[in-house]
Amino acid sequence: MNPTGPVDERRASDDLVRAIALTTQFGDRIVLDGVDVAIRRGEVFVVMGPSGCGKTTLLRHLCGLLPPTIGSVSVAGHDLYSASPELLHHLRLRTGMSFQGGALLGSLSVLENVALPLRENTDLPEAVILATARMKLDMVGLLHAAHLLPSSLSGGMKKRAAIARAIALDPDIVYFDEPSAGLDPITAAEVDNVITKLNKVFGITMVVVTHDLPSAHAIADRIVVLLDGKVAALGERDRVWHDPNPRLRDFIERRLRAEDSRGMDVIQHLEA
Ligand SMILES: Nc1ncnc2c1ncn2[C@@H]1O[C@H](COP(=O)(O)OP(=O)(O)OP(=O)(O)O)[C@@H](O)[C@H]1O
Ligand SMILES: [Mg+2]
Predict the structure, then answer these.
(1) Counting CB atoms within 10 angstroms of each CB, which of 37, 115, 128, 199 has the fewest?
(2) CATH of domain 42-66+84-271
């Protein structure tokens, strides 16, 4: 698929984040090799690809944590890696992250975990901090668990608490790395619902790395598939899903067969 084809033509101002020619070299190894992606305001953008293909690395480049070896990332028109420390700090505050294995602090209640970014980055009065943290927990359906310690939460509740923490500062965009990893299909679908709700109801732009095809299908507006360090497909969900490129068919169909019963719904969608 050609990412610059007619379907992807649009006004530059629709793009919140643009990455151009991203190349990542770790030692002798090229992980990403000339990756171009643009995240549009208000969309759910899903990143897929085999394990080790560079999905987490791409996310780290996009959110300002890792400068690419070659290439550039701009956020709202500002070049991320040449920004002044003040601008970088500002852009980071507008960005939420919920990373692979990103744990909640075990010694703090769920409410205090969500309040933490507000305490660290604002001088809001205590009552406003607590009210805001409660509101975020309510947005992910966890208000009832506000005073629990993370150790007493189920896997799905932990993920939702991490999402509440990622949206504590009202970010424009949130990056999720494998939000449904390790969850059973029903709990994974609950996390998908939270992501969809935050996007559709609150307009937060979402970038989600997942290897879970049913999740990808449920939440994505657009999808990028990375294979061998390059963009193998990029576009609207259904277009990528039906892309005839044999390498892509192989990736998608092999993954679907490896999925649990939720994969069947997606196979039916594929065949429809
Ligand atoms: N800081 C680093 N130094 C050296 N190599 C790294 C570093 N970070 C990642 N890599 C390597 O880059 C490759 C891509 O890693 P990355 O974590 O981005 O993959 P991924 O697609 O997220 O995989 P997974 O699906 O397993 O999470 C891997 O081979 C990894 O070992
Ligand atoms: Mg990863």
Answers:
(1) 128
(2) 3.40.50.300
How far, in Å, is the centroid of ligand 2 from the Cα of 179? 11
Q: Is beta strand 78-79 parallel, antiparallel or unpaired with respect to 70-75?
A: antiparallel
Q: Which residue's C-alpha comes closest to atom 31 of ligand 1?
A: 52
Give domain limits for the chain: 42-66+84-271
Mean pLDDT of the chain: 89
Tell which atom from ligand 1 comes closest to the C-alpha of 60.
18
Token pair recorded at residue 6: 């007619």
- Residue 76 Rama label (left phi>0; alpha psi -120 to 50; beta): left
Q: pTM of the predicted model, to two decimals? A: 0.89
When computed from its CA atoms, the radius of gyration of the chain, rounded to whole angstroms, is 19
Residue 49 Cα to ligand 2 middle (Å): 10
CA–CA distance, 234 with 36 (Å, rounded to integer):
10
- Ligand 1: residue whose CA is nearest its atom 18: 54
Asked if 66 contacts 43 with a C-beta cutoff of 8 angstroms, the reply is: no
* Cα 52 to ligand 2 centre (Å): 7
The tens digit of pLDDT for each residue in 164-220 reads 999 999 999 999 999 988 888 899 999 999 999 999 999 999 999 998 888 999 999
* Residue 192 φ/ψ, nearest 5 degrees: -55, -45
